[in-house]
């Protein structure tokens, strides 16, 4: 069943593209070329798109719940001064982030961390740069209650929604009874957010077998990404994230990331979440604190290998990349963004109905 929503913002949901096959490039008459093509074909199979969006048994998909979540996401009713919504920081055309080095606070200053993208969170478990959130449902009231963020107490949020006739009807349609509760606000927002899925990109067409979808430089960059540069050690799979936490040898200062929850584990000191790379060319600046301005600078950072210390990931070490190899890596990363000017479309998937 297709999920349909009304209103001017309905077109802001993204479409999950499904690849049913992976293609292997044609082999030449030379043995090394055949070996390279075989290895590339093996790597390509790891990036095939999933067939459906997963929803947890504790919060199954329903159309009414998803529509309620959409309304809540774009409505400033959930901020103290009614001047911010979730979409103020998670902007669809900016890769569902905000384009800032660090998130803006209510006083026009900066928060400590960069706004993370909401793309493809349905496939993630631990959330937040330091993994403080166990589920997508548990995230919502952290920014809503945050004094520097939306600055709205839970009780006031529930009062506003309960007294709004439109929301009262929407909650009654989405849940067994009309009561507006914190848990139901969380469930609705999380249901909508699981539908935020990256659009098809040139890379996906190449994975599906269209050899002309990306240029030769990007194909060489793909080989480097999975081989010499070791990017795929952390940025793996269809969403380009292993969902884990790593010290890449760059963070300094008092924020030690995942390590503050595990002070006895040296390996987690300065470990931050591996972000997905979908729409990455639209999501500058980079890193958890927005410290790196461009993709080229990101490649240079990894090429240097970061600070040598006990917590640094074993996959991080100097790479010795040539300038041409760096350019190829950037060319590949740019193929992970959908075509400019494409308007995000409605997702029409449910957990049980893959798109044909």
Automatic annotation (TrEMBL):
Location of the Cytochrome c domain: 64-200, 216-337
Gene3D superfamilies found in the cross-reference section: Cytochrome c-like domain
Annotated Gene Ontology cellular component terms: periplasmic space
Main localization (coarse): periplasm
Record field: transmembrane: none
Residues where heme c 1 binds: 86, 89-90
Keywords recorded for this protein, A-Z: Electron transport, Heme, Iron, Metal-binding, Oxidoreductase, Periplasm, Signal, Transport
Note accompanying the cofactor annotation: Binds 2 heme groups.
Pfam families cross-referenced by the UniProt entry: CCP_MauG, RoxA-like_Cyt-c
Compartments (UniProt record): Periplasm
SUPFAM superfamilies: Cytochrome c
Post-translational modification: Binds 2 heme groups per subunit.
Physiological role: Involved in methylamine metabolism. Essential for the maturation of the beta subunit of MADH, presumably via a step in the biosynthesis of tryptophan tryptophylquinone (TTQ), the cofactor of MADH.
Protein's name in the database: Methylamine utilization protein MauG
Organism annotation: Methylobacterium durans
């Amino acid at each position: 069943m297709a999920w349909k929503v009304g209103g001017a913002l309905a077109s802001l949901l993204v479409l999950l593209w499904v690849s049913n096959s992976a293609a292997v490039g044609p082999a030449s008459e030379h043995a090394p070329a055949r070996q390279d093509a075989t290895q590339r074909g093996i790597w390509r199979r790891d990036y095939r798109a999933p067939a459906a969006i997963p929803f947890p048994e504790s919060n199954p998909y329903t159309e009414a719940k998803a529509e309620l979540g959409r309304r809540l996401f774009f409505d400033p009713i959930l901020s103290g001064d009614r001047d911010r919504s979730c979409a103020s920081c998670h902007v669809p055309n900016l890769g569902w982030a905000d384009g800032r080095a660090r998130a803006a606070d209510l006083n026009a200053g900066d928060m400590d961390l960069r706004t993370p993208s909401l793309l493809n969170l349905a496939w993630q478990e631990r959330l937040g740069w330091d993994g403080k959130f166990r589920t997508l449902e548990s995230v919502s009231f952290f920014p809503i209650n945050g004094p520097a963020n939306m600055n709205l107490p839970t009780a006031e949020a529930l009062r506003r929604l309960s007294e709004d006739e439109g929301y009262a009807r929407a909650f009654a349609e989405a849940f067994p009874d009309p009561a507006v509760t914190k848990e139901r606000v969380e469930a609705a927002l999380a249901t909508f957010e699981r539908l935020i899925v990256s659009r098809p990109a040139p890379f996906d067409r190449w994975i599906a077998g269209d050899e002309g979808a990306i240029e030769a430089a990007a194909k060489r960059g793909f080989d480097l990404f999975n081989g010499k540069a070791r990017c795929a050690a952390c940025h793996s799979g269809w969403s380009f994230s292993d969902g884990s936490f790593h010290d890449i040898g760059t963070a300094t200062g008092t924020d030690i990331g995942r390590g503050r929850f595990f002070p006895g584990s040296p390996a987690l000191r300065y470990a931050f979440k591996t972000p997905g790379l979908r729409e990455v060319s639209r999501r500058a600046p980079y890193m958890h604190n927005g410290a790196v301005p461009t993709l080229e600078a990101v490649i240079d950072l990894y090429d240097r290998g970061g600070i040598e210390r006990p917590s640094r990931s074993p996959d991080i070490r100097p790479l010795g990349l040539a300038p041409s190899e760096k350019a190829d890596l950037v060319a590949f990363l740019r193929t992970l963004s959908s075509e400019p000017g494409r308007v995000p479309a409605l997702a029409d998937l449910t957990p049980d109905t893959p798109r044909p």
